Automatic annotation (TrEMBL):
Enzyme class, broadest EC rank: isomerase
Keyword Aminoacyl-tRNA synthetase: no
Keywords assigned by UniProt, alphabetized: Isomerase
GO molecular function, one term: sugar-phosphatase activity
EC id: 5.4.2.6
One Pfam family in the UniProt entry: Hydrolase
Full protein name: Beta-phosphoglucomutase
Amino acid sequence: MDLKGIIFDFNGTMYIDGDKQEAAWFEFFQKYAEGKYTVKQLHEMIHGVNGGELLKMALNPELTEDEIYKLTEEKEDIYRNMCLNDPEGMNFTQGLPEFLTELKERKIPFAIATASAIGNVRFYIKHMHLDHWVPVENIVYDDGTFLGKPEPDIYLLAMERIGLKPSQCVVFEDADAGIEAARRAGAGKIIAIGPKEEHKRLRLLPGVTGVIQDFRDISPDILKE
């Protein structure tokens, strides 16, 4: 297998923020859809899907782009405030800085494919210095011009951004929809990331070739394995 580069999902992969994402959506839906969905249903809808598609699915498929933008920003304001209120929690996943440093030293290309919109990307750049680790041009985010996960578009764009074929890329992803997007894109290897209690389930997802809890036991040698 000719693996040469890496594509990372961001939320839940490079930054473990699932608790804040869920809490922000739950607070948002308490206002706009109270009692319409169970906690389990919301949990299943939230992960790996871009905000616009989620709003159409959960509230109204006829929402206009302007309405989607305003509602999304309202939810993201809740989320960003939660992040700022937990400054000690605004850290990259354990082992990730060391892994990224090794990738840079070995000149291995990598990019991010995130369902986040530009507002959150700017937030991560400002408060987590994301651009220190990943060139801004290699951060592919939801700009509304392509279908979100589980469609493969965002991964195909990220792979193109670093000049590699899908079969040459390893993808790190936490969400079921994102894993399916990477599989549809034709990624050479898909590594799922999640807590230990999720590992058995993640291993059974189509396309998954490995499962990790964090990046402490990962090295660039994964491209050779």
